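Please predict the structure of the following assembly.
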Amino acid sequence: MRKKIVAGNWKMNCTLPEGKKLASEVIHMVEDEVNNDADVILIPPFIHLTGIHSLIGSSNNIFLGAQNCHQHQSGAFTGEVSAEMLISAGATYVILGHSERREYFHETDELLADKVSFALDNNLTPIFCCGEKLEVREAGKHEDLVKTQVEKALFGLTKDQIKKVVIAYEPVWAIGTGKTATAEQAQEMHAFIRKQIADKYSQDVADSISILYGGSVKPENAKEIFSQPDVDGGLIGGASLKSRDFTNIVKAFD
Ligand code: PGA
């Protein structure tokens, strides 16, 4: 059985007091109201990791993640944060290759291959993001593009390593735009990604990897998207900043 996951990417939002309030509300609502076994991941800015970690405590199904990490262990990389530091702050997941990192910070698939394998070496679970821009979809090249992203960043991994990766398909045109991919479009791409993994590794490996959908997921559309056979959960941006909405998205798995 694949793990069901709902991850909240706060991006560059919330002061520490705001983040603590948001996390406390989510933790309480999830504990009181959720009737499913999905893992919930809170992904605040780096500086809030320790503070949020102490609120999560020893919860069995709520985890902490970071939004990025560097591809070296330590050294003269001013402003960067290493995988080992994230682990020491209580994070167990790290988002790598978010489209905003690719776009604004010029992260390439080659760099992401290094980051993914480095995160794994440090026992951090990468949430590897892929997805096409609108013009690529309109040109009918979305599958080719996503295939290339997955191949370049992940296919250097061994079977045992790739099994530990979570993939997030996030069509760039759906991120923060209110325009969600239809459940069919999400399912089609998720099945396509799973097939690439099956062809390269094995069906067993492909069947063990959680593939999340991201892009304008809201309480209103989560159930339909999550009910698709190859969709194992969501990477949530905007709606993760509202405790009620985020909890209701987790409840879509009830
Ligand atoms: P969104 O963001 O839910 O606000 O569209 C998703 C993401 O960027 O991970």
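The domain at 5-253 is CATH 3.20.20.70 (TIM Barrel). The chain has one domain: 5-253.
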